[in-house]
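Data card: per-record layout.
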Amino acid sequence: MSITHPKGFRASGVAAGLKPSGNLDVALVVNDGPDYTAAGVFTGNRVKAAPVLWSQQVLKGGVVRAVVLNSGGANACTGSQGFRDTHATAEHTATVLRGGAKPQLIGPGDVAVCSTGLIGELLPMDKLLPGVTSAAKALAGDGGDRAAEAIMTTDTVAKTAVVQRDGWSVGGIAKGAGMLAPALATMLVVITTDASAGNEMLDEALRAATRVTFDRIDADGCMSTNDTVLLLASGASDVAPSADELTAAVTEVCHDLAQQLIGDAEGATKHIAIRVEGAASEADAVEVGRTVCRNNLVKTALFGNDPNWGRILAAVGTTSARFEPDRIDVAVNGVWVCKGGAAADDRSKVDLRGRDVQITINLREGEMDATIWTTDLSHAYVHENSAYSS
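The structure for this 390-residue chain is written out next.
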């Protein structure tokens, strides 16, 4: 039940006609309380969609009673009309929830809005608003999976996760299959918990979790305009975990969802983990990992099952990380093909026929490490992002 596994939450997903396919395209998540605390992180892109700007304002109030999400249109780069449409969506959501089966004491300022789809086009409000009405009527305690399905775009599968603790839990849904890059991805994520926690604790937990999960997946080095991750707490379990306990549970859910995102990346045939060890700082380790995972020569080599460590070293050499070229070691799927910056074990021993690939880079400069997850660059990725708009 993902986001409806924690107590105090209902969700739904309906088809409003935003997608030509007729698939589910409007989702609604409602927090029935008794608490309504929340936190959020958003895209690092300076070009932000109207729903992102709206939801950032909502989070400043510290209360989120509902989240309305749509696929089939990003409502990004749509000017003042796009922002008015976002406001209208929040206002309509609040109105239908005030008059629903479980009337809510809710205003538009308590409603976060998320959208995903093609950039530059206004949403068809004549379809979206009736869809919100239908979603409100369909709210259910087991509606999390339909909500996850409704936010899919180029995703091939819905993405959900649940972590159970002693007396409380955390659940989440996510969408995303391309433009997965640091500072989030082209993704929408809603995480719920029935733990009792204040806004500050939620914010710290969410930022700590995203830093080592969503911020470390990178399919193609591209950053979207709509990325949103929200964490809502209902307090319905009447359990108040410690900050460390909450952070650990939220991080576990975020990691699960992040791995599902990168595993479903557009056109990918490889799921690649790049672990950088022996770095002088965590920042160095992250920079090296990100640079290697974005290198098209490395990505195409892996698509061709070629353990081309020379391309890896060349990519490392473009970073500002501290290292000596004649000290770097590189392993591909456990075979140390490079030692001391030169050829080592026979590269023909590397088996790249499977989907999972592990690259280890040891800079031999310190004790810090970091892992970045990425994919290969395939014919299918090029086709999917050139054959039609997404």
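Known properties of this structure: The radius of gyration is 22 Å. The longest strand covers residues 271-279.

See the next section for split statistics.
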